[in-house]
Specification:
The chain is built from nine helices and four strands, in the order αβαβββααααααα. The chain has helices at 2-56, 66-78, 112-117, 120-135, 138-162, 171-209, 212-226, 232-236, 264-274; strands at 60-61, 85-89, 96-100, 106-111. The protein has a four-stranded mixed beta sheet, sandwiched between helices. Helix 1 packs across helix 6, helix 2 (66-78) crosses helix 4 (120-135) and helix 6 runs parallel beside helix 9. 46% of the residues are buried.
Length: 293
């Protein structure tokens, strides 16, 4: 519950930032314009987010990975949710993400490197983590916040072009400061939301697969390999990095406001704390994925 409250507060802060930049740009008219633009962008994103994200990463339906389909279906039944579509991304970097506006219109995408480098239980744990994101509607939340962040940056650029409101109580210096700080603040809020949801998805994913240590081992293995193997589609689309289970970009892994993901060591420690608490009990094995296929 605390995670949902914090997410709501962070999204309220994002909305306030958006309104503030709109006001600086054109006063009351700017606020109205900001909401109209936000509504249009979010409506488009709501309908097309899954297709856009999958296309960005050249994901294709997992037509040949029948064992993977069985695994996803089994885990979805355990999570009491619809079975999402399954996609594969042809990159050697082990990673995965989920997308879609609702559990009924969702997809899980795993990389070829994930199937080749992780064992059956680890792949199942990663899939369970992504199912947790879908069940929690995180995919929609993260897409909306990303849209807000982009819109705030766009409005800030308009303010730079038009010079902002001359009668603004902040003055021209304040307008310039807002043009610099608003996009940065939006980025911080977006990252904070992503980090909050990752811990919750780890916890629920561990419950779905029944083995927190399999997810901990998967996170550790992915982190080690992702730092050495390029993910070219992610590098071309860095704005989607927060959707992956581990940051696919070759960036610093500090657990700070500037990280799209919590520090992997902290996530592993949280999963280790679940062992023996009864929060996640080991379940029967999931069907094999046919590792390396």
């Amino acid at each position: 519950m605390a995670g949902y409250v914090r997410t709501a507060m962070l999204m309220a802060a994002m909305t306030a930032l958006f309104m503030g930049v709109g006001w600086l740009l054109a006063g009351g008219t700017g606020v109205v314009l900001a909401f109209v633009v936000a509504a249009a962008m979010n409506l488009f994103t709501w309908w097309n987010s899954d297709k856009m994200i999958l296309r960005m990463h050249d994901a294709h339906p997992a037509l040949q990975e029948r064992a993977l389909h069985r695994m996803v279906a089994d885990l979805a039944r355990r999570a009491d949710m619809p079975v999402p579509a399954v996609y594969v991304i042809e990159t050697d970097q082990p990673n995965a993400f989920a997308t879609g506006r609702s559990p009924d219109r969702a997809a899980v995408a795993v990389t070829r490197g994930l199937l080749r480098n992780l064992d059956q239980d680890e792949v199942a744990a990663v899939v369970a983590h992504e199912l947790a994101h879908i069940r929690n509607h995180d995919t929609l939340i993260m897409t909306i916040t990303a849209t807000f962040a982009g819109a705030i940056s766009m409005l800030a650029n308009f303010a730079l072009f038009f010079g902002g409101r001359r009668d603004s109580p902040l003055g021209i210096i304040g307008v310039i400061a807002m043009m610099v700080l608003a996009p940065l603040a939006a980025l911080l809020v977006q990252m904070a939301i992503s980090r909050t949801r990752e811990y919750e998805a780890d916890r629920i994913g561990a419950e779905i697969c029944g083995n927190p240590m399999s997810l901990a081992a998967a996170l550790n293995r992915i982190q080690a390999l992702a730092g050495r193997i390029d993910n070219h589609s992610a590098e071309r689309n860095p704005g989607t990095a927060h959707m992956f289970i581990i940051n696919p970009l070759h960036a610093h892994g500090y657990d700070s406001l500037f990280s799209t993901h919590p520090k992997t060591e902290n996530r592993i420690a949280a999963l280790q704390a679940l062992v023996g608490t009864g929060a996640a009990s080991r379940r029967s094995p999931v069907p094999a994925t046919g590792r390396g296929r």
